[in-house]
Amino acid sequence: MGATLHQGKYFQTNLEVNQRIYSTGDTQFLFSASQRYHSSQNTSLAISYDYVQKDEVDWKTFKLSLDYFF
Q: Beta 43-52 vs 11-21: how paired, if at all?
């Protein structure tokens, strides 16, 4: 399940939640959130957070990115 929200012309928010169920009965939870600022048609600045549930150690990732589209 996920949602994308546009906040005016320049801002975009993405949220995504997943629950995986495997044939073995194991489950895995995933969550992702990001906020993006479009400074122009070709550039954007984004910050994001990802969470992946693992058996031994959960993965948590923070990312800051500058994107250039051409």
A: unpaired
What residue spans define the domains of the chain? 2-68
Distance CA 47, CA 39 (A): 14
CA distance 34 to 64: 10
**Taking a C-beta distance cutoff of 8 angstroms, is the pair 49, 62 a contact?**
yes
CA–CA dist 28, 14 (Å, integer): 20
* R_g of the chain computed on alpha carbons: 15
Which is it for strands 2-7 and 43-52: parallel, antiparallel or unpaired?
A: unpaired
Report the percentage of the chain scoring pLDDT > 90: 69
pTM of the model: 0.78
Question: The tokens 């073995």 sit on which residue?
Answer: 24
